[in-house]
UniProtKB/TrEMBL annotation:
Organism: Chelativorans sp. (strain BNC1)
Protein name: Thiamine pyrophosphate enzyme-like TPP-binding protein
GO biological process: small molecule metabolic process
Listed InterPro entries: THDP-binding, TPP-bd_CS, TPP_dependent_decarboxylase, TPP_enzyme_TPP-bd
Lineage, highest ranks first: Bacteria, Pseudomonadati, Pseudomonadota, Alphaproteobacteria, Hyphomicrobiales
A molecular-function term among this protein's GO annotations: carboxy-lyase activity
C-alpha cells in the first residue's frame, strides 16, 4: 500500500497547468501538496460528483488536461459516471481513484464490497481507453509519466492508506475566492 500524500507529491511533480479536482480527504491533501494553485478545484459536499465535475471540465476545456482525484467511496456513489465518461471519451481526462476501502471523510466506515470491488475492472468494462492499478510507490513513480501521456479517458486505481495529516481548513476549502481565481485562470487560457 502507498501513502496518499506521497502519491500526491509524486503526481504534483508532473503537473503544471492541469485542472485538478480533489474530493474530500484527497482534496485536503492536494491543497497541502499544491497550495494556492488557481487550477485546484475541490469537489466536497457533493459526494460522488468529482468524476462528473471532471467530465464537465474536460468537455468545456478540451485543450487542457483534467485530473480527477476521486475516492473509492465517492466513486461508489456515482458508478454510472464511469460509463458516461467512457461514452463521451474525453482525451484530456485522467481519473485517479484513491482506494482505501473506507468512507474516510465520514468516519472511516468500510465501503460495501471492501477488498472485493475491482474498480480498475469496472473502468475497463465501462470503456476507458487506458486503465492502470498501482499498489507500490516505486511502481507508481516509474509509471506516472506513461499514465499522463495516454489519451483518455484514463483510469488509475491507487491502493492507498492515509499519509501525514493535512490541515482540515474548511474555510479555505469553501472559499468562494478560489472559484473566482479558477474562472479567471481559465479565461486567461
Amino acid at each position: 500500500m502507498m501513502k496518499r500524500d506521497q502519491v500526491l507529491k509524486i503526481l504534483a511533480r508532473h503537473l503544471d497547468r492541469e485542472i485538478v479536482i480533489g474530493a474530500y480527504s484527497t482534496a485536503f491533501d492536494w491543497i497541502a501538496t499544491r497550495p494556492g494553485h488557481p487550477l485546484n478545484f475541490t469537489s466536497v459536499g457533493a459526494m460522488g460528483l468529482a468524476s462528473s465535475h471532471g467530465l464537465g471540465f474536460a468537455i468545456a476545456c478540451p485543450d487542457r488536461k483534467v485530473i480527477v482525484l476521486d475516492g473509492d467511496g465517492s466513486l461508489l456513489m456515482n458508478l454510472g459516471s464511469l460509463v458516461t465518461i467512457a461514452a463521451a471519451a474525453p482525451a484530456n481526462l485522467l481519473h485517479f481513484v484513491f482506494e482505501n476501502g473506507t468512507y474516510e471523510a465520514n468516519g472511516g466506515h468500510p465501503i460495501p464490497g471492501q477488498g472485493r470491488v475491482d474498480f480498475a475492472g469496472m473502468a475497463r468494462s465501462a470503456g476507458y481507453a487506458a486503465v492502470y492499478r498501482f499498489e507500490d510507490l516505486g511502481t507508481f513513480e516509474t509509471g506516472i509519466k506513461e499514465v499522463l501521456q495516454q489519451p483518455g479517458p484514463v483510469f488509475a486505481d491507487l491502493k492507498v492508506v492515509p499519509g501525514a495529516d493535512s490541515p482540515r481548513d474548511y474555510a479555505e476549502l469553501y472559499d468562494p475566492g478560489k472559484r473566482d481565481a479558477l474562472r479567471a485562470e481559465l479565461r486567461r487560457g
